[in-house]
Amino acid sequence: MQRRTFIRNSGMGLAAWAALPQELPGFDQVIPDLNAYAAGHEGLSLVEDEGYWDIVRTAFRREGNYINLENGYFSPQAEPVLLSTQRNAAYINATSSHFMRREQEQAIETARTALAGFLGVDVAELALTRNTTESLNTVIAGFPWLRGDEVVIGNQDYGSMNEAFEQNARRYGFSIKTAEVPLLPQSDEEIVKAYTRHIGIKTRMLHLTHLINLSGQVIPVVKIARAARAINPGICVVVDAAHSIAQLNFRLPDLEADIVGASLHKWLCNPLGAGMLWMKRDWIPRIWPLMGDTGAAPDNIRRFEHQGTRPLQNLMSIPHAIAFHRSIGTELKEARLKFLMKRWASAAAEMPALHLQTPWSSEGRNSAIATVNHDSLSPGQLAQLLFDKHKIFTVAIEHPIVKGVRITPHLYTSLNEVDALIRALRNPAGS
Ligand SMILES: Cc1ncc(COP(=O)(O)O)c(C=O)c1O
Fold first, then answer.
1. CB-based pocket (< 6 A), ligand 1
2. Residue 81 falls within a domain, yes or no?
3. 391: Cα within 13 Å, side-chain hemisphere
4. Which of 264, 340, 399, 423 is most buried when burial is the number of CB atoms within 10 A of its CB?
């Protein structure tokens, strides 16, 4: 596919890029190869086709003499996205205040439009932030709390959100109820009940982590939200989608949430420092921005973007990150990542000393991420042995509910690497 055709198909507005560097050799090389390879293959038949993933792998620069299975922190950018970001950084540097005063706004709107199209949301409901932490702190701190209100959160929500709720509970006098989400649920109803038992007329907000970063468990957001609204129709359903956006194949409105926050430097593989905050139209005037903004109309989503001077290349890259993502597609990406996860998790499930902390075989509840605990090694000891003896980089999770080593493959992870993990798990102390 010619670059021009590719850009048109990917939804990137050419007009807005007219003033920006046009050459994207990385895209020219990788995308046509992927398209050519995929041409003769039916949809998901590529999941186990290593020839295809070998091409994907060429798009990612990797350094270091180890296997990286800790891709749950953030994602590297594909080389074409990195190149375009570097060019944009150079362009901003060269045009300096002229860019900021004359071109920045258009660049932001181009990014917003591309992201809104990707997520399937109205562009007027989407703010570009720096990450999930900023998006959700905005909502938690800016919610019109009244003394005596209640919020329901989950026992495996992300630490920064817990801290945001605790700090603002002290400040505004609301109270926090915590749902005990089971580690290995048998049914969706079990999870729904864990939340609904805390919901009542005082509940103003329900905070759900769509894909739990500690274990990779995906919770049934829609069922929980519907059950909560059946008890209290006015409740504001806030979803932390940090790990699910661009990893799981869904459109954002499918979540039936009121507000969603996510990071784009995780599974969309955008450069570090870009996030999103989507808010249903009705909520926009009711939430206070984190950073003062009285200039924009109360119903203007841009009032949540008052961040001061910042590296715009990290937002300008969004259309490119989406374009690279679309060249594979979310359905295939999700299927490949789950295939890699199940390859090692199914082997680990047969090892007597290991205990999976994830509903790894349960479709709809699983993801790329899974966590495994060892009978006689602490998570820290196991992670250290995996690195020292086998050159496999992972992360130890020491959480009151989830304990183990978290394994997160990426699109560039090969079957050989997963098989090396399986061998290492069989004999962690061996070389
Ligand atoms: C579930 C979840 N929420 C929020 C975050 C915070 O993301 P960020 O650091 O990009 O703000 C993370 C980070 O890993 C996460 O896993």
1. 131-133, 158, 160, 209, 213, 240, 242-243, 263
2. no
3. 6
4. 264
Tell me if residue 278 falls in helix, strand or coil: strand
Owner of token pair 């990779």: 216
Q: What is the pLDDT of residues 176-221, one digit of tens each?
A: 999 999 999 999 999 999 999 999 999 999 999 999 999 999 999 9
Question: Of 321, 340, 356, which closes a domain?
Answer: 321
pLDDT per position as a tens digit, 313-359: 999 999 999 999 999 999 999 999 999 999 999 999 999 999 999 99
- Count the neighbouring beta carbons within 10 Å of the beta carbon of residue 264: 33
Instruction: Give the burial class of 140: count Cβ atoms within 10 A of its Cβ; 0-12 exposed, 13-18 middle, 19 or more buried.
Output: buried
* Residue in 141, 137, 127, 142 with CA at minimum distance from that of residue 301: 127
pLDDT digits (tens, 9 = 90+) for 128-163: 999 999 999 999 999 999 999 999 999 999 999 999
Ligand 1 pocket mutation pick from 129, 133, 399 by most atoms within 8 angstroms of CB? 133
List the Cα angle 52/53/55 in 5-degree steps: 70
User: 287 and 149 in one domain?
Assistant: yes
- Residues 299-322 as b/e (b if ≥16 CB within 10 A, e otherwise) read eebbbbbeeeeebbbbbbbbbbbb
User: Does the CA dihedral 140-142-144-148 come out positive or negative?
Assistant: positive
Boundary-marking domain end, from 263, 286, 321: 321
Number of domains in the chain: 2
> Which position has the higher pLDDT, 9 or 322?
322
| CA 266 to ligand 1: nearest atom | 10
Give the rounded distance of the alpha carbon of 1 from its chain centre.
Answer: 29
Give the pLDDT band of residue 27 (cuts 50, 70, 90): low
